[in-house]
Every structure is written in C-alpha cells, then in structure tokens.
Specification:
Blueprint (H helix, E strand, L loop, with lengths): L4 H18 L3 H18 L8 E7 H6 L9 H14 L3 E4 L7 H8 L9 H8 L3 E8 L6 E3 L3 H6 L7 E3 L12 E2 L2 E5 L1 E4 L1 H9 L21 E2 L11 E3 H5 L7 H4 L5 E7 L6 E2 L15 E2 H14 L4 E2 L2 H21 L2 H24 L2 E2 L3 H33 L5 H10 L7 E13 L2 H6 L3 H21 L2 E7 L2 E6 L8 H26 L10 E16 L4 E6 L1 H16 L3 E4 H7 L3 E9 L8 E9 L3
Parallel strand pairs: 1-10, 1-11, 2-3, 2-11, 3-5, 14-15, 19-21
Antiparallel strand pairs: 3-4, 6-9, 7-8, 12-13, 16-18, 16-19, 17-18, 19-20, 21-23, 22-23
Helix pairs in contact: 1-12, 1-14, 2-13, 4-6, 8-11, 12-13, 12-14, 13-14, 17-18, 18-20
Pfam families: CHASE2, Guanylate_cyc
Organism: Solidesulfovibrio carbinolicus
Protein name: Adenylate/guanylate cyclase domain-containing protein
Amino acid sequence: MQFKPVFYTGLTLAALALGLFTTRLEPARRVDAWSSDLWHVLAGKRFEPQHVAVALLDDKALAAEPDRPLVFWGPLYAKILARLREVGAVAVGMDIQPALSPVTWMDIIGADASRDFDRDFMLELAKGKVVLAASVSTESGEPSFSLPATDYLLALPRHEADLGLTNVPLDRDGVVRRFAPALYSEGEPRLSFAAALAKKGAPGISGAPGLAGLDDRAALQPRPIAYAGPPGTFAHVSFARLLAPDALSDPMVQALAGKLVILGIDIHGAHDRLASPYSLPLFGAPKEFMPGPEIHANIIEAMLTGRSLTNIGLGAAAGAWLPFLALCSLACSRLGPGRSALAALGLGLGAFGLGYGLFLAGRLLPLAGLDVGLVAVWAGANAVRLTRGEREKAHIRHAFGKYVSDAAITAILASGKPPAPGGSLATVTVLFSDIRDFTTLSEKLTAEEVVELLNVYFSRVCDIILAHGGMIDKFVGDAVMAVFGAPLADPKHARQALATALGMITASHDFETWMRERFPKLGDWRFRIGVGLHSGPAVVGNIGSRQRLDFTAIGDTVNTASRLEGVTKDMGCPIVASRMTVEMAGPGVATGREEMARVKGKSEPVPVLEILGLADT
C-alpha cells in the first residue's frame, strides 16, 4: 500500500482520540492497574526504608503467652511502648484497635479485679508519642466510627486528635494501590492512620516533604502509594523480641532508634493481610499478601521522604502516545498485515518499557488507551488495504478474465505483484494464427454464418491457448494473437506456445468436420490455418489512451511473429517458428524444413523452422 500522508495522519489522530476516550473506561483502568502491578513486580525492592519500622504480634509472640487473651495484652503493650521509648523510637502507631478494655470486660462479666490492670498501658499512652487506630464506615450513608475503648481514648493527651483512621481504599480487584491522607471530612479532615503517625513523628525527623496539605480538603483525594518494595521490605520485629529481658541489647530492637514504629497483629487467622501490587501472580507463583501494618509503613515512608507516584494526565499521555501511533501508521503503510502486526506489537512493548522507566521516576503512564490506538491503527490500515486489495483483485479478474486462464489469474493474485500500471520489458513468445483463404470462405456464407463460424472456431482455439498458460491478446478479423510469458512470467513460455500451435492444428481438423456438417453448402472445403511464432523481448503492459487501454505486448518480437505467420504460406507448412523459439523451447522439438526468411522490417533474414511435433518431457 502506498503511503498517503493525509489518510494516515487522520488515522493516527482518530486512533489517538479513541485511545483517550477508552482510557477513562473501567476495563482500561484495570489494564493500566495490571501494568502498574507488573512494573512493581519487575522493580522489586525500590529503596531501603529509613524512617519506619514494623513490630508485630505474630505467632511466636502469641505462643509465648498462650493463656493470655488479646484483651488482656494491655500490660504487655505498656512494656513494649516503654521499651520503644527507651530505645529512642520517635513515635509509635498502634495498628491494633483495643475496642474493649479489660476493666470494662471484667465489669461486664462481674469479675472482681483491680481497676489498675491497664494503668501502665494508659500511662504510656498519656506520654503523647502514640497514635491509636480507629476506623470509619459509611455503608449506612452516615459515618459510623469504630473507636478505641473510652479508657484508652481518654488516656491520649489529645484524645481523638491522637487517632488515625486505618481504612485503605480497595480497588475493584481487591488490591491496595492508593491511599488518602484524610478519609472523612466533617468540618475538617480526619487524618488517616498513616498521616496521623507521620505528622506526630515528623518533628523528630529532619524534613518531611510529603506532609504538606494534610489538613486541606484535597487530602481526601486518593493517590497512588509509592511502595518501597514487596512484602518483607520493612523488617518485621516480633513482639517476642521486644518483650525479652535482654531486648535493649538486641540489634533488631536497637535498630528501631530514631524511627516511627508501627505495632500490628500478624497471626494465623487474623486476616490483616491485603493484596498489594506485588501480589500479581506471575508464572504460576502464588499471590503474596502484605500485612496491613506494612502497607501503612509504605505510606508513611513515602510521605516522610517525599517519594510519590503521580498519574500522568491525559494531555501528557497523548503526547507520549503520539510517536508510537505515528510509527505504527508508517509501518502499516509499508508492511503487510503480518509484519505490521509484529511492528505494532513491538511498539506496544516499547511503550511498556517507556512506562516502566517513567514508573521508576515516579510517574504512572496509562497504556491501555495506547494499546487500543495501536490496534485501531493496524485494523484501520489493513481494512483499507483489504478493501483496496479486493478492488485490485476484481480489477485484475475483470481485466484479464477473458484473456488468461483462471489458473493464471490465481497465480497473479497469489504472487502479490499484480501487473504494474504502464509497461515493462519481458521475454515472451508471441503466436499469430489466421485462417487460410478466409476471404473466399466468407463469400460463400452469410454475415451471420461467418460470425457463427468464427465464434465456434475461436472458442475452441482459445481454450487451447488458455490451457497452456497463454494470454489471448487480440482478434484481428480471422487472426488471433496470443502471448506466452505475460502477464505472469513463465520460464517454459516457448514450449507452451509450440504445444499450443500443435493443438490448434489438431483442433482445426476437428473443426473442419463440424463446419461441413453445419454448412453443407461448403461441400468439401478444406479448413486450414497457419501459425507463426517468435520469442524475444517485448514491452508488456497497459497501452492506449485515457479513453481506451489494452493490456498488450508491442515491439519487434510481436512484429516478427506476425510476419512469420505469413511465411507459413510461402513454405507451405502449417506451423513456422523462429530458431530463437525452438532453442528456448528446449529438447524434443521435431522440426522439418529450415529457411532463412526475409521479413518486412528486418534487415537480416530470420532463420525459421517447420514445426512437426513436440516430445513430452
């Protein structure tokens, strides 16, 4: 297909518009989310956490206190908070929501116990370095808050201001890819757990560029989480280590100095593990879920270091897509459907690579719309190619259907190289044949009978020409011209032409019988034909004027073949061929007399031979 700048420019822009529209649809969002997840998996651990650590109540810690229900862990929480304060932790966030204090619980069951059971825990909370977890639900239409037990809430110096909402938005596929610094606004934003802890610990950490605007209503808008790495990127310190007698000399505990520490639960059956972008299963690997405290740790670390993932806007995305769509259009204009599909696939992979590079730089490039655009360019270009190709095939069938065999037309179409407009030089064999004494014959018949005779005769000889791969070039009165080796090249064109000439002689004998039966008034009239053949170069193509074009052959080879048909009369033999044709036909050509024929238009005589037969090879 020839390159048409206007068409392909329009196709590129239409594909771009389609891609921009598609990228807003939910299926496209899911594809873009999948691309983002794959970038996360490929990148692995992106940076080493500096400011946040995670301590978990895991199965090991739970096994050390097998007889203690979680509601009675207050004294142990107090000891852990004290150890963290002693080791130099900046602030602590408890991603554990103690909705019921043991005192309240014992009041409910009527137990007689000391009111000071959780005194140490509440004293630690009162020291002001702790953020407690809360959550909010809006399923009923009105916000419903789940808060810590009143005893603990009152122990906090700033009460509700020392709470953080642990809710994280789940995408439709259940993956945590985004967070909002504030989750609910009633007068002023209520900070998320991660934002509240980051804000509390910020004074003890130099610089916290990600905390700007926490109290603005814009903080309610979810934004992508800049994960530091897959599960385990933040080292998990077991509560068992923090509660051990030698905890302060434990290197893992000492490493918590100067950091914000998130306390959480990660025990079998606790269900506080969520799917993250790193949960994308590849090559049959099982999904790996991330503990909820570590998700909060990723958010806080990004806020404190200023790392972020920013969605590239549609305008910038369009600018990034356009070169890929333009290259796809160029490829489709010059390559076939298969190769252009591979080019489109390569461009899609290249765009994925560009997206990965931008991801490493903190930018998320949507690709689903671009993929749709590449498919649209390929489909549009090849639909036009197919339509044009069908038109070309129809034109070829119309132009050659009456003159060449169906097999030849099929071969021309299969070659993918239809005859080019204009003419081209080709080596061919040209055959001329006419009816002997046709003028006298026509005088014995009416005009209608002459036409009938010629139609029946030409039908028979044309079948022979087509059967041997020849092209019926034209009829001139009682003469027929055929070309072998065009429009489809045939290395056996000379041999096929000789076989055709011999077949025409045989057909003329059978035709004579038909003619005598059909026109008894002709008596014993003998029907004879002469055939002349010559091989050589000729110009073959569409020749004529704007009003009429014919696909024909012209040149000295054609003129010589025409003259040799007349030589048959002088030599008194039905078939005469030039030595050039006999030599090009190969072995097995039976010849008779040979003469040097002087033909009009040739300065030198032409060696010609009588053709008697052709051996099968």
